[in-house]
Specification:
By secondary structure, the chain is mostly helical. Helix content is 75%, strand content 0%.
Length: 287
């Protein structure tokens, strides 16, 4: 309880982390309350040729797109797609990467080396290139984007957990548990995992931003959810032929992607400063 109170107090004092948390909160609220916040919820998939490419006005806060649909309303529903892809892809990556890293870090021998060499193979290829290749092979859909992102991001958690597990495996409390006959599974779950959880949380938070950016890139290339999906990357791709006249068309989703990714990065940096005792000590010493 004291640790939780300390972390909460540090978090409230960290302006960077607070700004990131506010930006992420706005994304979540936009996704959850999209049907109520949208001024033209029916415009997400309908065609209104008379309202095509109108600029921002009281009727359409962020203007209209090439289909005459309200950009503001589509932006809100696009937040649902963005957060769905990011949360599921990161969750799958964590569920794969953390156990792999724990097992490979705890044990020695050929099996541990095999797990790490497999993760190294995935890490050797740029994530965006591998994600494009997988999405292109499977076809454009939300499910395939999630699969492509999960397949490319899990090695980051595997490598992180592997290194953290190896670093604390020789600690006295770990050796004492092994000497008392505690099973390897229990040692990993009850002793090692709680002590590396802060690193996992920070990596997950920062990974959310990277996942959203990569998902938008796939959508921009036509490998994301098919039309008339309001996915942000696809919206930017559709707006290219109307620039610079219809500037609002690309600006709204582009700014949304920028703010959300920045929010996760700021929150991740703030959590790293709060949860990592080494960084706290070094910064206190510098002051």
């Amino acid at each position: 309880m004291e640790t939780l109170r300390f972390v909460a107090g540090r978090f409230l004092q960290d302006r960077v982390a607070l700004i990131g948390a506010v930006l992420i909160l706005l994304l979540v609220l936009a996704a959850v309350f999209a049907p109520w916040l949208a001024t033209h919820p029916q415009d997400v998939s309908e065609f209104h040729p008379a309202d095509r490419l109108q600029g921002p006005s009281l009727a359409h806060f962020l203007g209209t797109d090439r289909m005459g649909s309200d950009v503001y309303s589509r932006l809100l529903y696009g937040a649902r797609i963005t957060i769905t892809i990011a949360v599921i892809a990161i969750s799958v990556s964590v569920l794969i990467g953390v156990p792999v890293g724990l097992v490979a870090g705890y044990y020695r021998g050929w099996f541990s080396e095999l797990l790490m060499r497999v993760s190294d193979i995935f890490l050797a290829v740029p994530q965006i290139v591998l994600a494009i290749a997988i999405a292109q092979t499977l076809g454009p859909s939300i499910e395939n984007v999630i699969l492509a992102l999960s397949a490319t991001y899990w090695p980051f958690w595997a490598r992180l957990v592997y290194a953290e597990t190896r670093s604390i495996q020789n600690e006295v409390f770990i050796e004492a548990s092994i000497a008392l006959g505690v099973s390897p599974l229990r040692v990993m779950i009850t002793h090692i995992l709680p002590n590396i959880m802060s690193s996992i949380i920070v990596r997950t938070t920062i990974g959310m931003g990277g996942t959203i950016l990569t998902a938008a890139a796939l959508g921009f290339l036509g490998l994301g959810p098919p039309a008339p999906s309001p996915e942000w990357g696809r919206t930017i791709a559709e707006s290219r032929e109307f620039l610079p006249d219809a500037w609002w068309y690309a600006t709204a989703p582009g700014l949304a992607i920028f703010l959300v990714v920045m929010g996760f990065n700021l929150l991740g940096d703030g959590l790293r400063d709060i949860l990592d005792p080494k960084i706290r000590r070094s910064r206190t010493h510098d002051r």
